[in-house]
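hey can u check if this looks right to u? its 307 residues, i copy pasted from the old doc so theres a chance i mangled smth
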Amino acid sequence: MTRHFLKDTDLTPTEQAQVLDLAVELKAAPYSRTPLAGPQTVAVIFDKTSTRTRVSFAAGIAALGGQPLIINPGEAQLGHKESIADTAQVMSRMVSAIVWRTYAQAGLEEMAQNSSVPVINSLSDDYHPCQILADLLTIREHRGDVAGQTMTYYGDGANNMANSYVLGGVNAGMHVRIAAPADYQPAAEIIAEANELAQTTGGSVMVTDDPVAAAQGADVLVTDTWVSMGQDSAGRDDEASPFVKYQVSQELMNLGNDPIFLHCLPAYRGKEVTAEVIDGPASAVFDEAENRLHAQKALLTFLLEKR
C-alpha cells in the first residue's frame, strides 16, 4: 500500500522517530542512501512561492540519486484544465513521488487518493508537516530527546503552522503550548485529535491567551509570521494588531528553561520576534532551515522504502 504524508499524524509516533533517526544518519552521511538512483524523477509542484521548500527538495532529491522536476504555477494543466484526479494518475505513471505546495488540503487528499506513488504535503492552508520534522530534528540536536520537552508557539494559533506544531509535537511526546489571542486559537477538532494522541505518547497540549504563562519553563519558543501567505494583512501587523503582545522578546525567553528559538522563516524582525532574539545566541533558525533538507530526505527515503 502506497504511503503518503499529508499531515503530521500520517506517521505514527514510532515512524516519526524512525524518520528523525534516519535524518540524523543522512545529515552525517549525505550520499549514503540513493533510493532514487536511476535517476528517478520526483515532481515538485508549487502553487505558492518558496525558498526553503524549493531548494531543500531539489537538493535532497538530487542527493538521493534522483532528479527533481519543478513545476511552477501556470506550467501545468493541474486545477484548471485538468482535474487533480487525472493529473495524479498521469504523474504517478511517470514519477516516483509527488511533492505539492498548495492551498486546499482537500486537493492533496484527492491527489493521494488517485496516486500510486507517495504524495507529500510540502505546505497547505491546514498543515506544514515537513517543517515540523525539521523542527523536531533541530530540537533533538540542541536539546536532546524531544519527548517530555515543552514547546510554546506564539502568534496566530489557527494557522497551518500552529496545527502542525500541536499534532506533530504531541506525536513526538512533547508538551505543546499555544499562546494566541482568543479569536485566533486552534480549532476544536485539532485539540481533540491532539488530546487523544497524547494518551499514547505522553505529550499534552495547552491553549492560552497569556503569553507570559506560556513561556514559564519552556524549552523551545517558536513563532511564525502574523500574516500567512495569501492572507490580507489589514489589521494583522500594525500597532493595533491582536498579535503585538505575542511578540517573542528576550523577556519571554528569560522565562523559559534556557530555551532555543525557532522560526520557519521568512521572519519579520520587530513584528513576531525581536532582532535581539532571532539574531541572538539562543536562535537556531538557520540550523532549522538546513534541517528541512535532511528531514525531507529521510521522509522521502522512508516513504519510498514502504512502497
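Residues 13-128+292-306 form a domain with the Rossmann fold fold (CATH 3.40.50.1370).
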